[in-house]
Amino acid sequence: MKRIILGVLFLFTALVTFGQNQWQQKKIDYFVEAAAKEFKLDKKRTKTLSKVRTTYFLEYMEIVKKAKSGAITEEEKKTQINAHNQKFNADLKEVTGSDNIQPFLARMREELKNVK
User: Fold this and answer.
1) Are 26 and 115 in contact (CB under 8 A)?
2) What is the pLDDT at residue 11?
3) Which of 21, 41, 51, 56 is a Cys-bridge partner for 45, taking CB atoms 3.0 to 4.6 Å apart?
4) Cβ burial, residue 106 (10 Å; 0-12/13-18/19+)
């Protein structure tokens, strides 16, 4: 009986984790496709942006995990996220070749809320 319960629990955990990763990957892909259209990126720069956005997300989640575990304070979390966002913005400007990314980012914040 314990094995069955543990097996079901493991399966459930794996499905939830995989589902969460798929959902985040959809958001990453949506962002990259929108940026490729907006800034007329070629395939090489689109692939680079995909890597940059994925790295951004993974590092962001690490900061959040550290804050939840108590490894860093709420103030440190805010500081690290702010620095992390500034680095991403600089990387996005470099990949797109545009200094005017704020309107795009504002639009993406709204649109990504509806990606399912």
Assistant:
1) yes
2) 42
3) 41
4) exposed
